[in-house]
Design brief:
10 helices; mainly alpha
């Protein structure tokens, strides 16, 4: 999709971590195809679930991989932020940007209900009037690690309650409880930031 394959160099990295493949792809660009193969189809399915449009979904995934390669040197793996969570976060924010841009041009796009709920949390709005991606990032940064991870799995990666339970090695019921609490925390922090923004505007 992006680079010409080099089977010899690929063979050495087929089982390497995502982070190692990304780092080495700047010396050997053909290696980036490994990441495309690992994530491309799943990301395309996720994009389709968000925007309900095949052509737009393909553009979203293409742009996401371009961003990943362009900004990959700044990526640092840390607790609660591995390559998978990073790439799905880029996919999500890219999808929202595409949705808003295409919505103005075409007017026939819609978001899935979960995404509408997520980006509209705390504002009572949806679509173009909902939270922008920068505000979403700010809210997530203020949440406890466990709440942030729950929301990333559910909204960025599109995982079900059962999949979240398996990922976190907890019961399905415990996963449902944590999802509920994480959503409440997100709404609370969002409202706090929105109120702060309104106060600052009023003081000007």
């Amino acid at each position: 999709m992006f680079f010409t394959n080099n089977k010899d160099i690929r063979g050495e990295y087929e089982h390497a971590s995502d982070e190692d493949v990304l780092a080495c792809s700047y010396r050997h660009p053909a290696l980036f195809e490994i990441l495309v193969d690992r994530y491309g189809e799943a990301m395309l399915r996720r994009a389709r679930r968000i925007v309900h449009d095949g052509e737009t979904s393909f553009d979203i995934v293409q742009e996401t991989f371009t961003k990943v390669y362009s900004h990959g040197k700044s990526f640092e793996k840390r607790e609660g932020a591995n390559f998978r969570s990073w790439i799905y976060r880029i996919l999500f924010t890219t999808a929202i940007s595409h949705y808003r841009r295409e919505k103005k041009r075409r007017g026939d796009l819609s978001l899935d209900s979960e995404t509408e709920e997520f980006i509209g949390s705390g504002t009572g709005e949806s679509g173009e009037d909902a939270l922008d991606k920068d505000m979403v990032e700010r809210v997530l940064a203020l949440l406890p690690d466990d709440s942030r991870r729950i929301l990333e799995l559910m909204f960025f990666e599109g995982q079900s309650g059962e999949e979240i339970a398996k990922e976190l090695q907890i019961t399905h019921e415990a996963a449902r409880t944590r999802v509920h609490r994480a959503k409440q925390s997100f709404r609370k922090v969002t409202l706090m930031l929105e109120q702060k923004k309104m106060r600052e505007k009023g003081e000007r």
